[in-house]
Give the backbone structure.
Amino acid sequence: MASILRGNMLIAQSGGPSMVINQSLVGAVLEARKHKEIKGVYGSLHGIKGVLEEKMVDLRKESVATLEAVAATPSSALGSVRKKPTPGECVKIFGIMLKYNIRYFFYIGGNDSAETTHIINEDAKTVNYEFRCFHIPKTIDNDLLENDHTPGFGSAAKFVACAVMGDNLDNRALPGVKIDVVMGRHAGFLTAASALARVYPDDGPHLIYCPERPFSIKRFVADVKRVTDKLGRCVVVVSEGITDADGLPIASKFIRETDSHGNVQLSGSGALGDLLANEIKEQLKISRVRADTFGYLQRSFPSLVSEVDAREARAVGIKAVHCAVSGDTDGSIAIRRKPGIKYQVYLERVPLKNVAKETRSMPATFITKTGNDVTPAFLNYIRPIVGPLPEIGRLQRFKVSRIR
Amino acid sequence: MASILRGNMLIAQSGGPSMVINQSLVGAVLEARKHKEIKGVYGSLHGIKGVLEEKMVDLRKESVATLEAVAATPSSALGSVRKKPTPGECVKIFGIMLKYNIRYFFYIGGNDSAETTHIINEDAKTVNYEFRCFHIPKTIDNDLLENDHTPGFGSAAKFVACAVMGDNLDNRALPGVKIDVVMGRHAGFLTAASALARVYPDDGPHLIYCPERPFSIKRFVADVKRVTDKLGRCVVVVSEGITDADGLPIASKFIRETDSHGNVQLSGSGALGDLLANEIKEQLKISRVRADTFGYLQRSFPSLVSEVDAREARAVGIKAVHCAVSGDTDGSIAIRRKPGIKYQVYLERVPLKNVAKETRSMPATFITKTGNDVTPAFLNYIRPIVGPLPEIGRLQRFKVSRIR
């Protein structure tokens, strides 16, 4: 345990937005405002970019009413960035931190943001810069190590489940094959969440393809044929990140861009859905085949949060500040789930290096052996994180006897 | 006024689903169940397809609880169809109606469905088949003649407004150019509804392109440049149906171009957005350009209805039955708005032929002269139809003084 440290705090948001990332921000800010050792509560605009450019805002001056309205608003209120600091930039960052007497640093984001936090923290040691350095978890992909699940995931999963619920009803009304492409480069959690859309036995999604299993177009076409032969329709949910047996993204031929973390940008294009739809049209001679790519709506749609997700996002922000003022020098906050039937979680500080860079994917026990669906274990895992979903009514459809 | 007619009723749904089309169904069914002259209350599965195949269900047997749950559920509970009856099919339809003693016929749908209803009604006269024949309005496109607005539009508009609200926040966090493609081939109402997403002065959508005005890629690029030069970002909402000055769909250019390259065949879902995004990338050298196509989510997303829309959808169903049992022989129900500041509507029976053929588009007074935005008159028109939207919080961003 380090000694009590007095100075200013700096908090920032990084990576893709989520529907509850501002809960973490506001949780941390309101908690920080309670502690005397934290003097100024500053926010950096657009992550470390705002530090480097000295674009900071005073979060002590924001009213509680404003902060609470922001907490309930999706997307990163301080602005975001996708940027990994170079060694030269780290030197610059410490110069600026020293100038503004920043002794508490909190970075909200996914594994890339955890990596940035880790780099800054490790570099601080080499220059003997004394501060508290914390990563606060956020990612709709649910792929952070150490965590049972991550803030942002539950709400994005709720959006995907609702969207597929509606899409299944649409497909039932006007039968055909519908392909929905869901976010998640390497982890299939969000794609798998679509299984929550099922209410009645014949409800879609009828096929779910996660990136954890190699995707074969041949098997996909055979799967769709089997479902349409049986039900006369088929709703497919597929991850944007599916790859073939050689690990080549199915969508890769359409994509050119990468970010500074080396991630290929897969979102925002309808190419994968169109490719799969055309395969079905051509090979199965089904005329009504449609594809939708859910895109950014999954991570920023307002008024559709999972209550559990919002609460936990707030809690990790509070916890990070609590750890920092209690003398912990660094770390990331992880959500752990207690064993047992009743949903209970607790928060734990974990080393930054454990969360940085690497990611986790769906456990094998969450995907069926056939590779085109999820297991009951996955549904048990995800239900409490997403919470209640809209009620879906269905006519009993009592047949009128045929008159001969 | 015709004499009292006793017999069975048949109701069906047709065309694209909406979030409130089941309100109209349930409104009509519950109203019909009150009237003694209507004996059986039947529903045909998948529109007139179900009539031709004699696939009918008994809606008197459905519990009120089931019906109310169905009313609150998006998409057509009886199934839908896109089909115009041939003269031969009309003859067959009357044979089946006679066999089942159908004397009350209600068809819920858009202008194509109104045309089907009109055809059946006109053909009935030639064969002296006595029945009551009504069209009940539904379309998210809001393009039915005679109507101030149509059931289904308000909820779809709410979805689009919410989606663009979130997307604007996303774009503000991670600046760049974002293009959202919205449904509506010929009418721009739904695209225009995105203007409701604006809360703060710099909020997107910054540019809105409806299909009522010819789309020029050159002007579009110049518009985006002007906005990004000013704000450092730009959110564009564009109708899927935009055409060039010669009336050629912009989306079709992309398909041709791709075919001529002999690459992958693209049929559509993301094609228009991708084309526009590429133009911006190439001509303005902006690296972060993304496109999303909202797709079917706009018409079937659960739990996001406009309350006004749901209420009016229920009311048109009730009104149609009320007209039929009151002795009116045929017609469509239109929503009219009373003049004045306070939002008030009334329902009126109008001739089927008035709704059946043509569609309406955005009045010129709803689109700015620049052709890239909507007017305050449009906002006044649409606000009460959509109702309250999520509250969007924003930090005041009090600047921390720079230390030299």
